[in-house]
Amino acid sequence: MNEQQTKSISKFLSLILRHQPEVIGITLDENGWTDVDELIAKMNAKGHRISFDQLEEVVITNDKQRFAFSEDYNKIRASQGHSVNISLGLDPQEPPEYLYHGTVAKFLDSIHKEGLQRMSRQHLHLSRDRETAVKVGSRRGAPVILNINSGAMHKDGFLFYLSDNGVWLTDHVPAKYINF
Ligand code: HQG
């Protein structure tokens, strides 16, 4: 497959494994997993032609490692980014002293007032390094990078999770922990 084909399949997998499994008639279990054989059969039935080897190629080569197989390869899920209500089953972890969030200027007034919210996703996404946050913010325009006092939040009892693909997740960052 060429880069364009793998990207197009990756985008479709993000849609069905994070947001709208019903588009091809699959269901996600409480931890976000779905059956690999059924996924392949239903994708093909809907005209999204894919073999197991091609699915594996998309998972392995994905730039952000967005998807993961279960150990026995019978199931697959998105590692983060869901809007559907599932639990990733991650244990809380101690975050680094500072994390980063990439956003754009038009959201800043609202972020000053109510802090960072998870919006339509299950969690708010924070990045380990500024460079990643720049990429995240750039999806919406000129990026504005917020530095988050995650160490202080952790001391104050806020919970943090690290997704399988290295994204830090939390529920809400009150404005007092944000260095604007
Ligand atoms: C903003 C991509 C107003 C927030 C990326 C963001 C990431 C507020 C937008 C992942 C706000 C939500 C997630 C508030 C937050 N008022 N705006 N109080 N609090 N916002 O897409 O972090 O390629 O849900 O700054 O790389 O941009 O899909 O979150 O701009 O890792 O794997 O509301 O999605 O990964 O947008 O991106 P999103 P995000 P994938």
Protein model, in words:
This protein has two domains: 3-78, RNA 2'-phosphotransferase, Tpt1/KptA family, N-terminal domain (Arc Repressor Mutant, subunit A); 99-179, Alpha-Beta Barrel (ADP-ribosylation fold), CATH 3.20.170.30. With 180 residues, the chain is of the alpha+beta class. The chain contains six helices and eleven strands. The longest helix has 17 residues, at 3-19. A hairpin with a 5-residue loop joins strand 2 and strand 3.
Taking strands numbered 1, 2, ... along the chain, how are they ordered across the largest sheet? 1-3-2
Could you tell me the number of beta strands? 11
Structural class: alpha+beta
Instruction: Using the alpha-carbon principal axes, give the shape.
Output: elongated
Any guess at the CATH architecture of the largest domain?
Alpha-Beta Barrel
Radius of gyration (CA) equals 18 Å
Q: Tell me roughly what share of residues is in helical segments.
A: 25-40%
- By CATH reckoning, the class of the largest domain would read Alpha Beta
What is the domain total for the residues? 2
Which molecules other than protein and nucleic acid are bound? ligand HQG
